[in-house]
Write a structure and sequence with these properties.
The structure is a homodimer. The first copy, chain A, is an alpha+beta fold. Chain A is 57% helix and 11% strand. At the A-B interface, helix 9, helix 10, helix 11, helix 12 and helix 13 of A face helix 9, helix 10, helix 11, helix 12 and helix 13 of B.
């Protein structure tokens, strides 16, 4: 198993040099988030990740969680690691001071969550789910609910879940059957079965706070009749202590392709006591808060997986001796050259590297937008920010997880047959990462969200704030000769995207299926282009640093070379997607259902 | 777990209607291989696959093989299934009559092997390895060796392996350390350790015949000093019966991402008795016979995986109700429409279908070339055939396994979160299929073999016979209006390929790394184009059948529609690969090894 090393230098580059987090934080009033503080926290998180979380990744996969009569045991070491995580104050980092949090910015937490996820996807999901539950209660809960549930969730001694899916409904939540009946005391009794509940039952915390969607009898059919509830595993006393068991039970856990150390549970509610969050029948709206944050979290998993797989593959490629370079012997004292001399091995490594670093920049940028949404008082800035987040979240979620999965596949290929053996850890990364293309909305769902709901749904309005930002960057660098190899492709692919969008819009007026037919290729195209923009921005920073003679020139030159690889060998893939989009829906829709197979 | 259904109708289409196997077999003197016989055998194989091999696929994955003190136990049901396989005479099908075989053509065996592999990749590997060992002994062994080892291998009561890889050498076999010392009786004593030996030890057969590469002391360094040996697990008496145990032992088995039911073994030779095959130091040449056949077998696995995943996804897509079609309700009596109405679900299904059916045609065509190589007496035909096989084998192996893997990923996506759960069997297909991109030479190695060794190594000569065939087809259909949507893209992409090849050749004279830098994108481009040719050929057959009013018109119309999908939504990907190739090696080679990570 290759050792996970937190990519601290690159995180600093992105947060401080690319995105100037100091100015950003100060402007938003996060006065404690100075450069020194950010550095110290990232440094501590790196240490904690490498020393506590990474070492239990492989055993977590081997042992998995075990279910016994409703109780779930996590693998060896998870309970102790989680305890250290709580004792270290990590859950409190970006939470509100009012409930025991440290009040630090969300984007700092996102940076750290990449480390946790890269080192141990399964472990990172436990806190990840708690964040979702907390965000929902904080934004939509009553004071009673906040005071009752938030302090222990913030502290981390309780954890949270999101209970949405049922056996017959995943994407289509309007079909849910779990019902919530009003009790005399104003609480509700929930009855129904939820599936695929990550961290739904485990031995890490004293209580589990489920956020559950359900239908109140008499509510409208479909998605307009969904309400949201807090349903704790153990009932809670008025002063926020654990009391008797609620009628919530874990019926079983799933056996899965990966993330074995995170319990994926069937949760049964048998008249369980719950508390309505927000208004009746407005549950889906309350969910959206959570879902955007969760999707950004999943995008981070794609980046983390690319980084972790890159680290493993790079170490192996430098160490493994096999064949000679076609341009002459590079390691004359050895029986063969290290495989990193071979162009195709470099292609795989640089694909991983350029996706990990480009994706890290995109995710960090989005996390800053989330900060602005939380803390800015400038309404115009907030509106532009919201449009950018709405546009880029599905791109980041779907694109970064798809290319992240591809990167884990490259990691296996670099190892050759050894990559297929569990011991090396490379195949676990691929198995663990596949879930990221599925949960919180599959790639297909993200693509529909992007193209149908957001871009065409807003008649393109949603593209404008981010489009203006990209254009401004290109214009500002129009006179910079050294930037042209990066600026010109963005202008070309960007212009083509605009035309493509218009054509899809026109065609969709005749045939709405044109949207679904274009959607995934359109999203992938947008993803390659978006990452190109962040790579160009990174090049500009690197150029400026080199010109100023500041910092480690090798680091900045590597940035520029990696960007060049991205533009020359990754971005051109977008043209294949464009060509597929152009050919439209006809060939996808003309085959009758019965004629798919004979 | 979705039930595996043998794609008998499509196999018949490919063998009989597309490739006219009857004429082909009669011409080569396979008089028994009449249409009736072929039909009967495929029908029986389909039944055997569905009733015996498919049902133990999932339990095989769950249980895996177990190692205990050198002995390996296969999962429940494998021993019984293998016994039925032997009793049914399946191993003997395409083997020489001289050694107890039925003397039927190789291509018939390939068709059947797709069924076995699609139903149970792990199981199919046991016979697959025996075929490789048999082919090597038959082509290069002495009469003594043939008489001693072949009858039981043909019968299937013994199985075979190929022992190539060692811990420090996989691709680079010249580095091997296993040594073979001449004994007084003319046999050799082999000492060394081999790894990744598929079917290296198990409980299915009475003996295991290892084909082992090793170095005879005093031989040249590197690949010119490799000799090939037969080393049985049990020594064999003069009349071919099992005698005492040879000094061969299984040190352990690997824990892997997939193909859990096939034992991947460490095999230790401790002065084991072996027999030299062919000439001293000519071992690699003898291996090539086997490797081409093995690579075609692996290509078949890619097709089989695409087909199996397609079947599972199609059944689910017709059954699962979720959301409404964007073009209006399709299932008014249900709570939602079946997800097959959604364009993006169709995109995934049609990708699987077009890869499976197109790949099946390519593999069947190659299998006929193998028949010709075995049985033709026309030397000019044999030479052209060899060139085609040499060109298309690495394309089929690497391209079909890469897109096969992609298809298994789509299969999971169609299922949404359920695809990640083991119970459904979709994720096993992805785990099992990943090995096909690795063994028998990784995708990167196939790409180098194609571009460096074969195309540039022959100065393009090797392209000519297949290129002429494709051109002839395009010319013959130049006047066929309905064929133009299929012919024109082949001409365009084909012309571009020729220019691309020339440019790489020119650049490679300056910098040999240009070859490795282009290789995988070049291979994928070639793969998309090759499959386009086979799709166009299938369209022609379908058009002719429709025009003649023969057979089931829905089947032929579906062929044409699937071809259209392939040309409109899959083939255009090739342009992305072309754009990457054009950008050359610079951005892949300029980053110093030490600057990949900071």
């Amino acid at each position: 198993m290759p050792e996970y090393k937190s990519p601290v230098r690159d995180i600093k580059f992105v947060m401080q040099e690319l995105l100037d987090c100091e100015t950003h934080y100060q402007k938003l009033g996060y006065e404690d988030a100075t450069i020194d503080m950010v550095d110290a926290i990232i440094g501590e998180a790196a240490k904690f990740t490498e020393q506590v979380i990474a070492p239990i990744n492989q055993i977590g996969d081997e042992q998995g969680c075990t279910w016994n009569n409703g109780e779930v045991t996590t693998p060896d070491g998870f309970k102790e690691a989680y305890q250290q995580y709580v004792e270290g104050g990590w859950p409190t980092l970006a939470q509100s001071i009012d409930f025991g949090g440290q009040g630090l910015p969300h984007s700092l937490n996102t940076a750290i969550s990449e480390l946790f996820s890269g080192a141990n996807h399964s472990f990172a999901m436990y806190p990840g789910l708690s964040h979702g539950a907390l965000a929902t209660i904080e934004e939509h809960g009553s004071d009673f609910q906040k005071n009752t549930f938030m302090p222990k969730l913030v502290e981390g001694v309780w954890t949270g879940t999101m209970c949405l899916t049922e056996p017959h409904c995943g994407t289509d939540l309007g079909m849910l059957r779990t019902k919530a009946e009003l009790n005399e005391d104003g609480s509700y009794s929930l009855t129904g079965t939820k599936i695929f509940i990550s961290a739904g039952e485990h031995d890490l915390s004293d209580n589990i706070v489920h956020i559950v969607i359900a239908r109140i009898p008499g509510s409208p059919e479909g998605s307009k009749g969904i309400s949201l509830f807090i349903v704790p595993k153990f009932n809670v006393t008025e002063n926020g202590e654990v009391a008797d068991k609620n009628a919530v039970s874990c019926g079983s856990i799933e056996h899965k392709m990966g993330i074995n150390a995170n319990a994926t549970c069937v949760i049964n509610f048998d008249g369980a006591k719950g508390y309505l969050i927000g208004e009746v029948n407005r549950g889906l709206n309350c969910m959206f808060t959570f879902m955007n944050a969760a999707r950004l979290g999943v995008a981070t998993e794609g980046v983390a997986a690319a980084e972790a797989s890159f680290q493993g593959a790079l170490a192996y490629a430098k160490d493994r001796l096999q064949m000679r370079s076609l341009t002459g012997v590079k390691n004359p004292d050895g029986p063969a050259d290290a495989i990193i001399v071979h162009p195709d091995v470099r292609r795989m490594l640089l694909t991983q590297k350029s996706i990990a670093e480009g994706g890290r920049a995109l995710v960090a940028y989005l996390a800053q937008l989330v900060d602005i949404g939380h803390a800015s008082k400038d309404e115009a800035e907030k509106a532009a920010t919201e449009a950018k987040l709405a546009l880029l979240t599905p791109i980041a979620k779907a694109f970064l997880t798809e290319v992240g999965l591809e990167c884990t596949s490259h990691g296996i290929q670099v190892f050759g047959g050894h990559g297929f053996i569990k011991e090396w850890g490379m195949e676990q990364l691929m198995r663990d990462t596949k879930i990221s293309c599925l949960y919180e909305g599959t790639t297909g769902i993200q693509a529909l969200d992007l193209l149908a709901r957001k871009i065409l749904g807003s008649k393109g309005e949603i593209l404008k704030p981010f489009g203006a930002e990209v254009t401004a960057f290109c214009v500002a660098n129009a006179g910079n000769e050294a930037m042209q190899e990066f600026i010109q492709p963005i202008m070309t692919f960007g212009g083509d995207l605009q035309k493509m969008t218009e054509r899809i819009g026109m065609k969709a007026m005749q045939n709405p299926d044109e949207i679904g037919a274009a959607s995934v290729d359109y999203l992938m195209y947008s993803g390659y282009l978006t990452l190109a923009y962040f790579w160009a921005k990174m090049v500009k920073v690197a150029q400026d640093k080199l010109a100023a003679g500041e910092g480690d020139s090798a680091f900045y030159e590597a940035k520029i070379k990696t960007a060049r690889f991205y533009f020359q060998r990754i971005l051109p893939r977008a043209s294949g997607h464009a060509a597929c989009v152009e050919n439209g829906a006809v060939s996808m829709m003309e085959l009758a259902e019965d004629d798919f197979s004979f």
